[in-house]
Specification:
Blueprint lengths: L1 E7 L7 E5 L1 H4 L3 E5 L5 E5 L11 E4 L4 E6 L1 E8 L3 H13 L5 E3 L2 E5 L2 H9 L3 E8 L46
Parallel strand pairs: 1-4, 2-6
Antiparallel strand pairs: 1-5, 3-4, 5-6, 7-9, 7-10, 8-9
Length: 176
Amino acid sequence: MLTLNTRINSADKVSAQLVLPYESRENSRLRTALSSGEEVAIFIPRGTVLRHNDLLMGDDGRVVQIVAARESTYRITCANPHDLLRCAFHLGNRHTQTQVGEGFLRIARDNVLKEMLEGLGATVIEEDAQFEPEAGAYGSGGHHHHGESSQGHAHGPLAPIPVHQKIHRPSDIPSR
């Protein structure tokens, strides 16, 4: 089985594609299959989120391109930027993973959130689309500490996320 364990910035040749929904692209340990059907294991640093067109190199030197799968989403638009900002605020207040586009927001389908957004005056359209939510203020690109105390270390205006913080996903709601 091919093991993909190194993220690279560019490659002369891409050997295969791996189509994954966002939820799978959040996993740093995953067993799945390439578009060709070949089984692969992803073993990358914890906390890494794979994005559309990312490249991973396998233990045999082959390069695999990540492709964001089309998923069941809602595309949210509003009559004006102020109303769209209000919708973004309420989604963020509920820790909902949200993709921010030019004049629209996109979230995974969730009927409760759809009703809330429509109540705020938004137009909510179901669509199958690639889902690329924002990494957030605490997402990749930040830094971490190896065993050192954070006392006396300023993080600027952003506070660390509490350990018990919950991110809302539609799959978190138990079915009846």
